[in-house]
Specification:
The protein is mainly α. The chain is 77% helix and 0% strand.
Length: 154
């Protein structure tokens, strides 16, 4: 679990730094270019963290890492990131108000609680879904799989 906390919180740190420095202090990054930039940055940070987390898990297991264990490690990292990022945005909402929450919601977004629930759910489930994809792809290249000539039973 230490690996998941270490790398999941590292991804959240990248998100926090981006939001605090670029969005809040500099007042930039709210337009379409900033949204694309943040999407790319957050996903690259996620991929790199999952990659290093799976490599660290493989090293901790003495170089033997099965596909299933690699995917589980990546998903744990994604879960820590998803929960901690949601907590950060909830705290940001309480401190700074709904400014960031309402960006990109359209002219009449509806009740604030619905907007918040949709954004937090999107962040949580989107992070988990993309984490599953990234974990699976990285595990495919880094983990050991059973072959036809393998004598081991799953």
């Amino acid at each position: 679990m230490k690996i998941a906390l270490k790398y999941g919180l590292l991804i959240t740190l990248v998100v926090v730094l981006w939001i605090v420095i670029v969005r809040l202090w500099l007042g930039m990054g709210g337009g379409p270019v900033g949204q694309i930039g943040s999407f790319v940055l957050f996903n690259v940070a996620t991929i790199v963290a999952i990659l290093f987390g799976i490599k660290e898990r493989k090293k901790a297991l003495g170089g033997e890492l099965w596909f299933k264990e690699a995917v589980k490690t990546g998903m744990r990292i994604s879960l820590v990131y998803a929960i901690s990022a949601c907590l950060f945005f909830m705290i940001e909402y309480l401190v700074a108000g709904p400014k960031l929450l309402l960006e990109g919601s359209g002219p009449d977004p509806g009740p604030l609680w619905q907007v918040a629930a949709m954004k937090y759910a999107g962040l949580l489930f989107g992070s988990l879904f993309l984490g599953l994809i990234y974990s699976t792809l990285i595990a495919f290249f880094l983990a050991r799989r059973l072959g036809r000539d393998s004598t081991e039973i799953i």
